[in-house]
Amino acid sequence: MLQRRSRRNAIFRGPGGAVLAVVVLAVIAVVAAALDSPPPPVAGQARVSDGDSFRLGEKRIRLLGLDAPELAQSCTAADGRTWPCGRAARDRMAQFLAAGPADCRPEDTDQYERLLATCSVGGHDLGATMVAEGLAISAGRYWTEEAAARNHRLGIWAGDFDAPRTWRDDHPRPQGISGWLSALGL
């Protein structure tokens, strides 16, 4: 038994064994990187979905690092009036997307098979701009932009609002056709 173990380990002994071990590890690293590589970049004219997502051809894109109010979400202005902050975020995103083709660098996909990406139009980072204008909160990126929007009381920061995640949790989407019919009052 001892003799067999020493034969197995003999492959990796000496200078040639060290090189072989490095080569084996390099091959494993290359295979792992290829299996875990991000999706390729995508670009083109986009169609808005809401304040942090859109379609680029048949691909659905969700911007990374921010969370915009949901389309049906309302916020409270400084004077106490409610305003449709979700629609305002969507409309502003539509304006950015109308300015030219979107250039997106996907990093991953989510559970809904959307590409999770950082995107720009005309060299302007869409996520940074939405957060800087107070139409989205930072969610892992864009902390500086959020702090500036808060300090200047821009957009949602001018009054009161529920964080988009909290709003989604409190307003679950209807499931199935009967859920949608009941949501429509039918």
From TrEMBL:
A Pfam family reported for this protein in Swiss-Prot or TrEMBL: SNase
Gene3D superfamilies, per the entry: 2.40.50.90
Domain TNase-like residue range list: 47-159
Protein name, UniProt field: Thermonuclease family protein
Record organism: Devosia ginsengisoli
